[in-house]
Amino acid sequence: MDPLRIASPYYKMKVPKNSTCKERRPVLHKHDLPLTALISYPGSGSTWVRHLIQQLTGIATGSPSCRRKLKNSKSFSVGECLTMARDPFDTLRSGYSSKHPGHSESVDSEIFNVRGWYEFVRDHTTLWERYYTEWLEAERPVFLLYYEDLKTNLPATLKKLAHFLEWRVHKKDIDCTLVTSEGHFHRRHVHNITNSEIFVGKLWHKLEDAELNLAEIASERRKAGNYVESGTRLKNILEKADEEDKEDTSL
């Protein structure tokens, strides 16, 4: 979990090619400010979200000093919770690949054909579901931000994100964030093997069940209030499950 802190009004600028927009380089504020927790499971895209927040609002999203402070503190006060989630199949795939720096996921599919991969998925399926369940059930304002909503409708998702952070943005802020959205840390993968080929048998079904359980918990949290969703990802998960139930009933 990482803190989000307000940046100072001074930025070092870098002008992207073929654009009048300038890439923001925020500096952390000198004084402590209220924290918004950025919650994400490894491989969910939090690095990209940090970049987008900085480009959109000027909010710096942490520093080594912040990390040391959190590491040395057993507890700290968090007001709101920005919960970053992603398709768990892609999340675990990305997380596992990052643990094998000597391999390239785009060309070396052999890293998935070992016992370690199956054990990784088995263990992390439970951890992934438990991790998000605990944060969604916590009694604090929550914004459930899906990576897929950022990919399918970035402008609308950015507007919701700014509103949750209580940061006023203008059309130019959105437009320039779209121009500089890629950043310098966005990893590119060209998959030569599909998820259905590496998540086989029980691995697939257990992870699919975990994703549905989380969607149902989020749906209940929506009814309780103090909760915002980023887009249509959650709705799509629940609708897909309903369609599958109807098909099973008709058989």
Automatic annotation (TrEMBL):
GO molecular function: sulfotransferase activity
Domain Sulfotransferase stretches: 82-175
InterPro entries linked: P-loop_NTPase (IPR027417), Sialate-O-sulfotransferase (IPR051589), Sulfotransferase_dom (IPR000863)
SUPFAM superfamilies per UniProt: P-loop containing nucleoside triphosphate hydrolases
First and last residue of the signal peptide: none
Family: Belongs to the WSCD family.
Name of this protein: Sulfotransferase domain-containing protein
Organism from which the protein derives: Mytilus edulis (Blue mussel)
Lineage per the UniProt record: Eukaryota, Metazoa, Spiralia, Lophotrochozoa, Mollusca
